Amino acid sequence: MSLTLIEGGIVLTSDPAQPLLQPGYVLIENGIIKAVGEGTCDTPDIYQRIDASNKLVIPGLINAHTHLCMTLGRSLGADRSLLQWLTEAQVPFMSQMTAEDHALAVKLGAIENLKAGNTTICEIFFSARYPDGADSLAAQALDEVGIRALFFRCSSDEEFAPGFIESTADIDKRSQELIKQWQTHDKIDIGVGPLVPWTATEEYWADICSLRDTGISVHLHTAETPEYNDLMLGRSGLSNVGFLADRGVLNEKVMLNHCVFLNDADIEAVADSGASVIHDPTSNMFLASGIAPILKMRKADITVGLACDGPACNNTQDMFEVMKDAALLQKVTTCDATALTARDVFAMATIDGARACGMEDKIGSLTAGKHADITIIDTLASHLSPIHDPFATLVYSVRAADVETVLVGGRVVVAQGKIQTIDELDIIHQAQKRAVELRQAAKLD
């Protein structure tokens, strides 16, 4: 038996039964939360004690949509709209990447996420190097760094950039192989999905639904910009969500990302289906995409999680920034300071994100029986002092750099702000060198 005790800190559990423990403790046994409570814990045989005095203890944050495969393109093509950013910068750059480059990009991005307190990510992976096994190498890279991941193998079988299109048969075969490779792993799960709705044939949609019906999660970009709906209207006469509903794609295993441009009928269709929505406020602002109707979706009882989006269109993996942006956007557009509160967005980044991922029984709150995915934040900093309301401090004052300790499945992967599983400096040097070479090869100088 291996017992770890985190004690002495302010514990924000994201569990409605006991949301705030001040001070509180978390007892971990063999990677699973054994007990959470207020005050002290008199338990013998403690193998490891973590002193959380002057610290906030929270569930590991869930970054429910990112593209770590694009980390090497960070800051490339800035100050452009989405389709310009993609076609003029990111796609030419990614076209030069090897399968090994993708693994390197994913490692760098996973390090950043863990150091920011994000213990679970949804990696929306796409590549022109699927024939070279880029997906398998990237999933292995995530496992090596030690993060928990729902790895979505996303692809297109028509109407996308040259080199990024696979045959429908290859997509199905390679997806099945990747699912089989990771089906018994404790931290890496595999999902699927077309990258965007208009780049998939009817045959591909049928394959997606078949996999979904076996329990595989589906994730796709949806109604991110007006052009997304225009492209779908031209093809089917329907909006993004209208098309997905018409084809029977939507259900509780489906995660729709962005959903900036939804009408009332779209929102009703998503709500009726049980599908979830992932909100990326920072990247939506960065790419001038718009402001998602989050309040309408929440009022319709749609589960809404939060995400940074990729390191190339944010340009960080700071979920504290995302929580703050999510709250402030709804406040300023409604002129209502209570529209989306600190507690609301904290839930969106934890338990609601877990629910959207279909993992509410495993992660998302500090609750006995769940995986010990935990983030500890040092509050002895001028920008965090004094603390009156821990939730307000967490959302409106904390930065990713304030994260001190991170555990995934009870394993300490970040200690004193330093990654414990991999040589970060070596990865940074490799990434900078390859990024310059790839930019030059793509003639983007």
Summarize the entry for a quick read.
The chain has 445 residues and is an alpha/beta fold. The protein is built from 15 helices and 17 strands.
How would you characterize this protein structure?
There is one protein chain. With 445 residues, this protein is α/β, with parallel strands linked by helices. The chain has two domains: 3-59 and 372-419, Urease, subunit C, domain 1; 61-356, TIM Barrel, CATH 3.20.20. The chain is 37% helix and 22% strand. It is built from 15 helices and 17 strands. The strands form three sheets. Strands 1, 2, 3, 4, 5, 14, 15, 16 and 17 form a nine-stranded mixed beta sheet that branches. A four-stranded parallel beta sheet has the order 6-7-8-9. Helix 3 links the parallel strand 7 and strand 8 (148-155). Helix 2 crosses helix 15 (424-441), helix 11 packs across helix 12 (342-348) and helix 12 packs across helix 14. It starts with a strand and ends with a helix.
Strand content: 15-25%
The count of helical stretches stands at 15
What is the distance, rounded to the nearest whole angstrom, between the alpha carbons of the first and last residues? 57 Å
CATH superfamily of the largest domain: Metal-dependent hydrolases
Q: How many whole angstroms does the radius of gyration measure?
A: 21 Å
Number of strands: 17
Report the CATH C-level class of the largest domain: Alpha Beta
Largest sheet: 9 strands, mixed
What CATH architecture label of the largest domain applies? Alpha-Beta Barrel
Helix-strand makeup class:
alpha/beta
The residue ranges in which pLDDT falls below 50 over 5 or more consecutive positions are none
Average pLDDT metric: 96
Count of domains: 2
Shape: globular
Helix content: 25-40%
**CATH topology title of the largest domain:** TIM Barrel
